[in-house]
Amino acid sequence: MSVPYETAAYEPAESPESPEEHLARLLGRALNSFELPDETIRQLDCALAHDSSLHSAHYSSGLHRATYRHTWLLADGSAVTLWELVHNTVPGSETQHEVYTDDEELRAATARLPLPPDAPDFELPAMVELAAFPEPRHAYTPDDSADHARRLLRRAENPDPPGDEIATLLLRTAFAHEITQAFGRPSRSRRGSRPGLSFSLYEHAFLLTDGQEISLWEVEHTATPDGRHMCEVYSTEDAARDAMERRAGLLG
After folding, report:
1. Count H helices, E strands: the chain?
2. I want to staple 27 with a disulfide (CB 3.0 to 4.6 A). Which of 33, 153, 158, 216 is the partner?
């Protein structure tokens, strides 16, 4: 038995859509898109990533109804969801699309549809849980983040920097990042006339196009024989802090 609500509109695109393109397609087919609040549209215009899933479906006596959940991830770590109702109200009639900002509006709109009572023999159970975006730990800024990762890795002087797999992933898919200082110790004089000793630890957090987060840990210090400033980059915080302790211990 064919499933009428699996229309071409929901077939995978040949290439991944951007959040803006996905929003434009949704608004373009929804009959009531003009009712959405302007503030919601402005938020979604700046989305970093998106995801969609079939939430529920019903097919009976030539009539069909399906609901979809569309979620966008914003740069501040919050998420905005729009609910899409897809249905025909007369057997053989053209499918219509409506969009709502919350599930209560969706339920009210669904209740108004002139659909017959549920018929178990023709009911198509289709409950799909949307994979929630992980809660980001940072307030990311969309920027030339791949280039930032490239410059960070280029200035690393330690013999064991992050591997090629992490580097390739960042250079290909990082599109937002945030830098925070995790540790900082001001310069202090060493014995004799040698320069001051200082350590700083920075987390460079990157957001990837699939919602994944990757951090690189940068150690800046002057714990070198001649007091020269040195930069080291590690893939974990523990490795970075171990490196600081080793450097400080060598020059005690």
Report:
1. 6, 9
2. 33
User: Would the pTM count as exceeding 0.85?
Assistant: no
- Which residues, in sequence order, are CB contacts of 227 under 8 Å at separation 6+? 190, 194, 195, 196, 197
Helix, strand, or coil here: 182?
Answer: strand
Beta bridge partners of 167: none
**Whole-angstrom distance, CA of residue 199 vs CA of residue 242:** 12
Show the CA angle centred on residue 126, arms to residues 27 and 212, nearest 5°. 65
* Alpha carbons 230 and 223: distance in angstroms, whole number: 8
Q: Say whether 97 sits in a helix, a strand or coil.
A: strand
Q: 234-250 burial string, b = 16+ CB within 10 Å, else e?
A: bbeeebbbebbeebeee
pLDDT digits (tens, 9 = 90+) for 178-200: 888 887 654 444 444 345 678 88
